[in-house]
Specification:
With about 450 residues, this protein is mainly alpha-helical. It has 15 helices and no strands.
Length: about 450
């Protein structure tokens, strides 16, 4: 549980930035959808560049607190400061300077996120060698991810209760920043007794390391599947507020209730997915969750403002059930793929490889919201400063439907192709543990 608690603050960041931040820019700061998309894209591309660097740094770090744990505290502090800044912009009349301020604040947030998340994702591969204990660890992570998501989705109701203006968003930013700091601090102290691997020097060239990492077939297949899924999630999340409020006509309170419903269902069914994993294996459980999620997401294409509320909340329940399986099984496979790398190469580079997973996450969450906002801009979405009540043209409504239903379903279906080819089972890992690592060619010269 101490490990899982660290996910809460990062979930607050991801869900707040992926949900309420885009409407905050377009409808409260008056930043056009195209410019807002560019801001998100640039900040995330920066974030992606820092991930591999953070992985190498954490692999090479030696402190009295271990290789990973110091960065949990540093990352929590930096990301909390960034969230406070981004939702509390000063009164800047010049649009260019306002955009520059927002970009700077985003860079602070995502620097902190990288400092925390890359070492954090590395830790399960070091904490235990048990195939199923790793699933349990990631289950606790998913529990706190959803606690963070519940906190983040309350932003809609909180902002409306506080006055539904820029000042309300600023108060929300301060409150969430405190929670991010508390969650990262608890994780830092709570994981002190956890097992850690020792830094191991090696003389392999960068080229050899990159080649052997790319040759890690289970890792590459897992990353490909996760990229498709996360891109779909980021698209639907960025479009979700527009879809619920503009297309379906839901209030912020009902939108919040919808998100709460889905998150609570996720928390409730996590034990069931753990049992399914032990009985049928991680891969099959993962594929079943992905297929179910894609099918339910596709039904949003049939939704209209005239539908009964029950139709909307039935989808919330079903999506919560399948999302729980995706959230547990995907990260649970990562420590196995990282250990597979060590067993095949003898290299202790858990942080570097885990940074690939984080980079894929960042890339998906860079492209998804940016793509959604670009679509809205291209299809004529009307920005403003008075909230989401502005009437939108039919072309913009079509773009919202695409982002909420069609594209996420197609991307999840595509991820099944990669999962079908994934073949790193518990038996295969056990067989590899019984023999020394394969020899890796040393660099010439």
């Amino acid at each position: 549980m101490n490990f899982g608690a660290g996910a809460m603050g990062m979930a607050v960041i991801l869900n707040t930035m992926g949900g309420v931040f885009a409407p905050f820019m377009t409808n409260f700061l008056g930043i056009g959808a195209g410019a807002a998309a560019t801001l998100l894209l640039v900040s995330k591309l920066y974030d992606m560049v820092t991930d591999p660097l953070m992985g190498v740094i954490s692999d090479r770090t030696t402190t009295r607190w271990g290789r990973r744990r110091p960065f949990l505290m540093l990352g929590g502090v930096a990301s909390a400061i960034g969230l406070t800044l981004v939702f509390n912009p000063p009164a800047i009349g010049n649009q260019a300077w306002l955009i520059a301020y927002v970009l700077g604040s985003l860079l602070v947030i995502y620097t902190g996120y990288t400092l925390f998340n890359v070492p954090y994702l590395t830790m399960p591969a070091e904490m235990t060698s048990s195939y199923h204990e790793r699933t349990t660890l990631m289950s606790y992570r998913v529990v706190f991810l959803n606690i963070g998501a519940l906190i983040a989705v309350s932003s809609f109701a909180l902002v409306q209760w506080l006055g539904n203006d820029r000042a309300a968003h600023g108060t929300m930013g301060w409150a969430f920043a405190i929670l991010i700091f508390l969650g990262s601090t608890y994780c830092f102290f709570g994981t002190a007794p956890a097992r850690q691997t020792v830094r191991k020097e090696h003389a392999y060239s960068i080229g050899t390391q990159v080649r052997t990492a790319v040759e890690n077939r289970p890792l590459m297949l897992l990353l490909s599947a996760k990229f498709c899924q996360l891109l779909g999630v980021s698209l639907s999340t960025a479009t979700g507020v527009y879809f619920k409020v503009v297309v379906l006509g839901l209030s912020y309170q009902l939108t919040t209730l919808y998100l709460y419903t889905s998150s609570l269902v996720i928390l409730a069914v996590i034990p069931a997915w753990n049992m399914a994993s032990r009985r049928y294996g991680k891969r099959l459980a993962y594929m079943a969750a992905t297929a179910g999620y894609a099918l339910v997401t596709l039904t949003w294409l049939l939704a209209t403002a005239d539908d009964p509320l029950s139709y909307i909340f039935i989808r919330a329940v079903l999506l919560g059930i399948f999302a729980a399986g995706i959230l547990v099984m995907g990260p649970a496979l990562l420590p196995d793929a990282v250990e597979y790398d060590y067993l095949k190469t003898g290299m202790r580079r858990e942080g570097t490889l885990s940074s690939f997973y984080s980079t894929v996450e960042k890339l998906a969450f860079a492209i998804g919201p940016a793509l959604a906002l670009y679509f809205l801009s291209w299809f004529g979405y009307q920005a403003g400063t008075d909230g989401l009540e502005i009437e939108q043209p039919q072309t913009a409504i079509i773009a919202i439907y695409m982002g909420a239903g069609l594209t996420p379903a197609a991307l999840n279906a595509l991820s099944l192709v990669f999962l079908f080819k994934y073949d790193l089972s518990e038996d295969r890992l056990n067989a590899l543990r019984g023999r020394p690592p394969d020899s890796v060619p040393r660099p010439s010269g």
